[in-house]
Write a structure and sequence with these properties.
It holds the Pfam family Alpha-amylase. The protein is an alpha/beta fold and 508 residues long. It folds into 3 domains: 358 residues, TIM Barrel; 52 residues, Oligo-1,6-glucosidase, Domain 2 (Oligo-1,6-glucosidase, domain 2); 64 residues, Immunoglobulin-like, CATH 2.60.40. The strands form 4 sheets. The protein has a 7-stranded parallel sheet with strand order 11-10-9-5-2-1-12. Helix 1 packs parallel to helix 2 and helix 11 runs parallel beside helix 13. The longest helix is centred in the last third of the chain and has 24 residues. 48% of the residues are buried.
């Protein structure tokens, strides 16, 4: 059913935490099939599956041993084919995660490299130490760890953009490219409609391997969110070449096909929007998403800044929660207002599983945490694993309807809050997802945008020439000069958020 849908509403599924059908405590492909009716009822256009490939799960499935094979913990090839068929039958496209920056250190390629196979070593970045035994340069991993890991068997260092268990691939190598092309075409042949590319802006490095210079105040000022990670202390001049990477994604487009919907993750906070524009010119990706909105909680200022810096919002995917970011459901904000604000923004919209119920971010005890980044940053970092706590399908049931066994992360949801969200917010999400498509907000142009304190005021012009005005108050701010007529839709603190949050949209 592949056709590239403009500005799709995409529902992200983290399979491990979606629905368990075997009692293992881990979600699986049959569980996704069981719950697809719920997803389709929201009116979204597509589902994005986080990795289901063979993996030791050190980094939640983003450390891949085999890009062509499904991990048995999730199911079989037949299960996957049934999932694709069921999704297509419900009018949903299927997008798969592509984690191309690195493999698991358990990959046969990497294990062969350790054993002395130089051809396989060339698939990665190995270098000799300096004469004093230290790493080749000062590069860091994006998790704030040293970028280089010593291997005593090869007596060399290898480079990792993330964990030491995730050695970075040499994506310039022709054999690596041939492997990527083949596995992408294989998934496309099985009915996959598109791909999400993990850390797409981090693919390539300067082969001179020079030291990165220190970050400047100007660069630091552009970093969204906290800057306690030492990775932000460098100006990443040599370990990340986004300009070359933007050209590289033309290969991904060729391998995936013109009718595939392609979007990517930008990990470069200090130039996020500008890079998104580079990666989404014709012949490249359809859209890129950045961390600007979630790290600033969808604030009026962050939305206005994104609009000012982007050539077109059609090329920026909007989102607030994911498997990598804390859930935005919280008591000091109205989730309904934030949802309506996101629905009104043109361009793709990524909705994370459970967001439609206004699920909050669960607190986990340290002894329950398995994510290496969460443990590395404990207790100061925002944490990723809280957003991966399994879905509470039935808040009154043992196992919350997710599993009959012991869940891989503890379930401790507020049963009454979940029930309220399932009764109210899910219907609201379905309504606004339909409105964004039917009213043409998804493909509209922004003709005016103002952020003043707690208030965001946006005017859109749709493709048929209609004008719409959306006003969103994030607290105490009161907008001025509102339209006289009744709004087409209103959002307030229906989900238990604090008063003072309001949102409304008028057909101006």
């Amino acid at each position: 059913m592949s056709t590239r849908k403009p500005a799709p509403a995409i529902y992200q599924i983290y399979p491990r935490s979606f629905q368990d059908t075997t009692g293992s405590g881990t979600g699986d492909l049959q569980g996704i099939i069981r719950r697809l009716d719920h997803v389709a009822a929201l009116g979204v256009d597509a589902i994005w599956l986080s990795p289901i490939y063979v993996s030791p799960m050190i980094d939640g499935g983003y450390d891949i041993v085999d890009h062509k094979a499904i991990d048995p913990m999730f199911g079989t090839d037949a299960d996957f084919d049934a999932l694709v068929a069921r999704a297509h039958g419900l009018g949903l496209q299927v997008y798969m995660d592509q984690v191309l920056n690195h493999t698991s250190d358990q990959s046969p390629w990497f294990q062969a490299a350790i054993a002395g196979d130089q051809a396989m070593a060339d698939h990665y970045l190995w270098r000799d130490p300096k004469p004093d035994g230290t790493p080749p340069n000062n590069w860091l991993s994006q998790f704030g760890l040293p970028g280089w890991t010593w291997n005593h068997l090869r007596r060399q260092y290898y480079f990792s953009q993330f964990l030491p268990q995730q050695p970075s691939l040499n994506l310039r190598h022709p054999d690596v490219q041939a492997h990527i092309a083949a596995q992408m075409r294989g998934w496309r042949d099985r009915g996959v409609d598109g791909f999400r590319f993990d850390v797409v802006t981090a693919y390539l490095w300067d082969e001179s391997l020079q030291d990165n210079p220190p970050s400047t105040p100007q660069v630091q000022a552009k970093v969204s969110g906290e800057t306690w990670n030492t990775y932000t202390y460098q100006d990443h001049t040599y370990d990340m070449l986004p300009g070359d990477g933007a050209a590289y994604v033309e290969k991904l487009r060729a391998w995936a096909g013109d009718d595939a919907y392609l979007f990517g993750e930008n990990t470069s906070g200090n130039q996020s929007i500008e890079l998104a524009m580079q990666f989404t010119t014709p012949g490249r990706l359809d859209a890129v998403y950045t961390t600007d909105l979630p790290e600033n909680r969808g604030s009026p200022a962050s939305v206005a800044d994104m609009i000012a810096r982007a050539d077109s919002l059609q090329r920026i995917a909007g989102w607030l929660s994911s498997h990598d970011q804390p859930r935005h459901g919280r008591p000091d904000a109205s989730n309904a207002v934030l949802a309506l604000q996101m629905a009104f923004l043109p361009g793709p919209w990524i909705i994370y599983q459970g967001e439609e119920w206004a699920l909050p971010q669960p607190d986990l005890a340290k002894e329950d945490v398995t994510d290496p980044l969460d443990l590395l940053q404990w207790p100061d970092g925002p944490g990723r694993e809280g957003s991966r706590v399994p879905m509470p399908w039935d808040p009154q049931a043992v196992g919350y309807g997710f599993t009959t066994g012991t869940p891989w992360l503890p379930l401790a949801w507020d049963r009454d809050r979940v029930a309220r969200g399932q009764a109210e917010m899910a219907r609201f999400y379905a309504r606004i997802i339909g409105m964004r498509r039917d009213m043409g907000w998804d493909t509209a142009d922004v003709v005016a945008c103002m952020a003043k304190g707690d208030v965001l005021d946006i005017t859109l012009r749709t493709q048929d020439g209609s004008q719409w005005r959306g006003v969103f108050s994030h607290g105490a701010g009161e907008p001025a000069n509102l339209p006289a007529g009744p709004p087409a839709i209103v959002a307030d603190a229906m989900d238990g958020g604090t008063t003072g949050w309001h949102g409304a949209i008028w057909n101006a």
